[in-house]
Amino acid sequence: MKTNEEIKEMVKQKYSEIALQDKETNASSCCGSGGCTTEVYNVMSDEYDHLEGYSAEADLKLGCGLPTEFAKIKSGNTVVDLGSGAGNDCFIARHETGETGKVIGIDFTPEMIDKARLNADKLNYNNVEFRLGEIENIPTMSNIADVVVSNCVMNLVPNKPKAFSEVHRILKLGGHFSISDIVLTGELPEKIKNAAEMYAGCVASAIQKEDYLNIIKNAGFKNITLQKEKPIIIPNDILKNYLNEQEIEMYNSNKNIIFSITVYAEKLNECSNPTCC
């Protein structure tokens, strides 16, 4: 069993490698990480290219949803993107918030921050900035964000209650978040759990859907809504690297247990713990 720090270092190392890959190498790999299969399987990601503000250079195919599409961003808003990667969600958010708004991307991988800043410079965006930091200790003032978005990142954070309390802290009163993430509705085989860590944590540290939603509720959020939900199917081409034929058949005989969800919730009180009110 890996410690929280070991998980963070594993994820940071893998995402550093992805940030340094060329786009062609990254696009031909599972969840953006190399070496998982001989064919192209971006099994988690949704296509972004129909959204205004989309930047192909910043799209590393690491997400599991389209949170910015559901985030209800308005002109002039301040938006914070947690786990901003190369900046794609930030640039889409910037299109919605316009030149009068502000977008802040947070990532704990220095190579991703460098890549995102380079992409922002190419686009000549002066109201999009990227900060190095962890989601469990977000490097912004309290009550700064109108909207928080995040795409397939919170599942990688070992201390999820702390992470969502930080989301609550940085949101303005009346602000909201839209977060896409991976959750479970059953138990994964141990071999799959271990394999998932090798795919840049696509489902590493994912928890049960009910537990995930309870963490959000316990952080003080209201009007929690599932905006989108889809099953994640792990192709046999990947499964065969970790399971034998009988284990694959048994795994596939179960109903889908890995899901991508996009969750919306609002901050309607000042406290991050309902009991404090």
Class from helix and strand fractions: alpha/beta
> If strands are numbered along the chain, what order do they take across the biggest sheet?
3-2-1-4-5-7-6
Q: Which percent range describes the beta-strand content?
A: 15-25%
Number of folding domains?
1
Features:
7-stranded mixed β-sheet, alpha/beta, Rossmann fold, 34% helix, 277 residues
Give your account of this protein's structure.
With 277 residues, the protein is of the alpha/beta class. The protein has a single domain, classed as Vaccinia Virus protein VP39 (Rossmann fold). Helices cover 34% and strands 20% of the residues. The protein is built from 10 helices and 7 strands. It has helices at residues 4-20, 23-27, 67-70, 88-97, 110-123, 160-170, 190-198, 209-218, 236-239, 245-253, and strands at residues 78-82, 102-107, 128-132, 145-151, 171-184, 222-231, 258-266. The protein has a 7-stranded mixed β-sheet with strand order 3-2-1-4-5-7-6, with helices on both faces. Helix 6 (160-170) links the parallel strand 4 (145-151) and strand 5. Helix 1 (4-20) runs parallel beside helix 5 (110-123). The chain is globular and about 55 Å long. The model is unreliable at 28-41 (pLDDT under 50).
What does the secondary structure layout of this molecule look like, with pairings?
Blueprint: H1 4-20, H2 23-27, H3 67-70, E1 78-82, H4 88-97, E2 102-107, H5 110-123, E3 128-132, E4 145-151, H6 160-170, E5 171-184, H7 190-198, H8 209-218, E6 222-231, H9 236-239, H10 245-253, E7 258-266
Parallel strand pairs: 1-2, 1-4, 2-3, 4-5
Antiparallel strand pairs: 5-7, 6-7
Helix pairs in contact: 1-5, 6-8
